[in-house]
Amino acid sequence: MTGTQPGGEAPLTTIDKVGEHEGQRVTLRGWLYNLRASGKLLFPIFRDGSGTIQGIVPKAAVSPETFETVKGLTQESSVVVRGRVRADQRAPGGYELDVDEVEVRQRVDENAPFPITLKEHGVDFLMEHRHLWVRTPRQSAILRIRAEIIKAARDFLDGAGFTLTDPPILTPAACEGTSTLFPVEYFGEEAFLTQSGQLYIESTALALGKVYSFGPTFRAEKSKTRRHLTEFWMVEPEMAYAGLDELMELAEHFIAFIVDRVLGRRRADLVLTGRDIAKLEAIQAPFPRLRYDEAVAMLNAAHARGELPQPFEYGNDFGSPDETYLSSQYDRPLMVHRYPAAVKAFYMQPDPEDARYALCVDVLAPEGYGEVIGGSERIASYNLLKQRIEEHHLPLDAFGWYLDLRRYGSVQHAGFGMGIERAVAWICGLDHVRETIPFARTLNRMYP
Ligand code: 4AD
Ligand code: MG
Fold first, then answer.
1. How confident is the prediction for the chain on average, in pLDDT?
2. Which of 195, 275, 286, 373 has the fewest CB within 10 Å, making it most exposed?
3. Rounded to the nearest whole angstrom, what is the distance from the C-alpha of residue 238 to the centroid of ligand 1?
4. CA 274 to centroid of ligand 2, rounded, Å
5. Does ligand 1 have an atom closer than 6 angstroms to the CB of 167?
């Protein structure tokens, strides 16, 4: 067989890097993912967080103790293994390991085995065991892609002259509408978990020019859709001296950069999740743009042809079937701009050409993955902003500081927010956001 002798040099490495050690003996630290036996041959599959690799343990080539140890290994037992790396065309990662030494750190008791076996489990069971589910290859791949998306978002903005400014999470007032706030008791006063860092980064944008925030945000809306979490992560760029056109340009280059980065660095993980990669390769700026009214006309025409069951009620936000229909018309994200001001947030700048519309944009991901970005130009006029705060019955005193931004050097400014989980769902091709974040918080889930 290999002739490898236990005890020789065996540098520590990870499964994703074994290719750098072809023909050499290495040490891997991980867990047993699966074990097959065929007569005098054992085929343990190990995982270490960077990938999985199949080991080969022929009875004739290892000590009797090593053979028995591997033979008795249970799923998810933690092990340090040593062996020689061998290229194999048929192996999923291109390499196998001729194992000669195994140290068991903790052997899982076979009378209380790892609850997630390789057979199918229902998603409720898996979510109840999310703390263990994250170990399975597909879930680990999704988490690596999530990390890449976050890094890409930050690298893009850092490289484009944006400064990260962290807004508070405990806030005195609403940003996106009062019905969706989580109240918290704050030394005898009522405070809220933030819905968006936007209002605060409008302040830092007027200080630093181009800024962004990246952090957790909270929405108490009681929606049970496959796109809503109560706690999610948002990246929000904000620019002074910029309007809707610059914002849409930023959005398309931002998204194209992120997709390109994931394709370049996480291709194997995309394949593992079963993603149709050709669909992602089509994501290039510029993106198609439609006014809200044009999108409504498309929906009505589709309804008239019998392609949509419901007629669209003008003035509404798009529902999920509407978004799916609209986005299915294009192979790139669709930017829908200039919604009726009445359906959008209080801070949006009205279109100077027709004040019934807001200078805002929603970016709808292709293939029916829904809205990934929402943004707008902000009201720059003190008087108009004050009037909107009053019309929306928001507490004026809590917005004193926000109005100050329109008193001292007010300028045109604009920004957007991208929900990380929506972006992960789209890029990984997941039909529910619960798998896009390590521990999802939804209307009916707080455990684990
Ligand atoms: O469209 P939204 O509500 O916009 C804002 O919060 C703005 N203040 C952002 C800004 O202009 N700086 O949210 C922005 C994005 C949505 O497009 C969506 O991707 C995501 O955040 N999002 C959610 N993701 C998961 N669960 C929820 N409940 C979400 N609500 C919004
Ligand atoms: Mg929105």
1. 95
2. 286
3. 14
4. 28
5. no
Question: What domains can you pick out in the chain, each with its CATH number?
Answer: 6-106 (2.40.50.140), 131-436 (3.30.930.10)
115 close to 130: Cβ distance less than 8 angstroms:
no
The CB of 202 under 6 Å from ligand 1? The reply is no
377 lines ligand 1 (CB under 6 A): no
Hey, whose CA ends up nearest to atom 17 of ligand 1? 373
Q: Which ligand is nearest to the CA of 228?
A: 1
Segment 84-92 long-range contacts (CB within 8 Å, at least 24 positions apart): 84/2, 84/4, 84/23, 84/24, 84/25, 84/26, 85/18, 85/19, 85/21, 85/22, 85/23, 85/24, 85/25, 85/26, 86/2, 86/22, 86/23, 87/19, 87/22, 91/53, 91/54, 92/52
The predicted-structure confidence for 203-250, as pLDDT tens digits, reads as follows: 999 999 999 999 999 999 998 899 999 999 999 999 999 999 999 999
Do 55 and 110 form a contact (C-beta atoms < 8 A)?
A: no
Among 306, 312, 324, 349, which Cα is nearest to 431's?
324
Query: With 80 as the cut, is the pLDDT of residue 174 above it?
Result: no
Position 2 scores a pLDDT of 45
- Are the C-beta atoms of residues 292 and 357 closer than 8 Å to each other? yes
Write out pLDDT tens, residues 126-156: 999 999 999 999 999 999 999 999 999 999 9
- Protein residue closest via CA to atom 20 of ligand 1: 419
Pocket flag, ligand 1, residue 434 (CB < 6 Å):
no
Distance CA 407, CA 402 (A): 9
